[in-house]
Design a protein that fits this description.
Layout: H1 2-17, E1 34-45, E2 54-69, E3 73-86, E4 94-108, E5 112-128, E6 137-155, E7 158-169, E8 177-188, E9 193-204, E10 207-219
Length: about 220
């Protein structure tokens, strides 16, 4: 919890330093200076292997900062910090992972805004085998990810995104590529505050993973 509290303080600094509220409500996240907090529930279907399903929850903090703006396109810097823990009924072990992601998003402006992004992740994992007699495990991982999709302005303040994300693990003995399909929506209730909801799907080695997410954004 101390780590999460520290992350929250660091990510929210830009919001507290901003004295003037945005005058107009924006649409979408591209080109917007904002911090966010979110929650995601993951459900992994292991029925192909005849195994029980696996559930995970993520708590996330994010920062989106526009760093280059022209009439036709822009570039955003992205930072995400999140904590992931399993919440399944598997009582013989628990898994906790802490992620730190940094990247950039390149986008074209318009009612329909295509975008591409690239990012790198650092992941620290801890596995607690409880009282099974197996030694606990701890390791560090680097991940690379690329995204491609589009943001669509639907109404004033309301936008939707759909994109593909390809994530690659840099661990030599478990290198793999994982493709995700993501769709989400963001609604700016006021010029400063917004809420979001989304879904994600991926499949790897016959394991179907479904994610349901919700969050809030603060524009500075």
């Amino acid at each position: 919890m101390k780590t999460v509290s520290l992350f929250a303080s660091l990510v929210c600094i830009p919001a507290f330093l901003s004295s003037a509220a945005p005058a107009e409500r924006t649409t979408g996240i591209l080109g917007t200076d904002a911090v966010g907090a979110g929650y995601t529930f993951y459900y992994d279907n292991y029925h192909y292997y005849g195994d029980t399903d696996y559930k995970t929850q993520n708590f996330e903090l994010s920062l989106n900062k526009n760093v280059w703006d022209t009439q036709k396109f822009g570039v955003d810097a992205n930072v995400r910090l999140y904590n992931s823990t399993n919440i399944s009924d598997r009582s013989f072990f628990t898994v906790e992972q802490n992620y730190a992601e940094a990247g950039a998003t390149f986008f074209w402006k318009g009612m329909v805004s295509p975008f591409v992004s690239t990012s790198v992740y650092y992941v620290h994992s801890d596995v607690d085998w409880k009282e099974t007699g197996v030694s606990d495990q701890c390791d560090d991982t680097w991940l690379l990810e690329g995204k491609a999709g589009a943001q669509v302005a639907l109404l004033e303040g309301l936008s939707a995104r759909a994109y593909l994300a390809l994530r690659h693990s840099c661990i030599a003995d478990s290198g793999k590529n994982n493709l995700r399909y993501v769709a989400d929506a963001l609604y700016w209730i006021t010029p400063r505050w917004g809420v979001s909801a989304g879904m994600t799907y991926s499949c790897f080695e016959h394991i179907d993973r479904y994610g349901f997410t919700g969050g809030a954004f603060y524009r500075f």
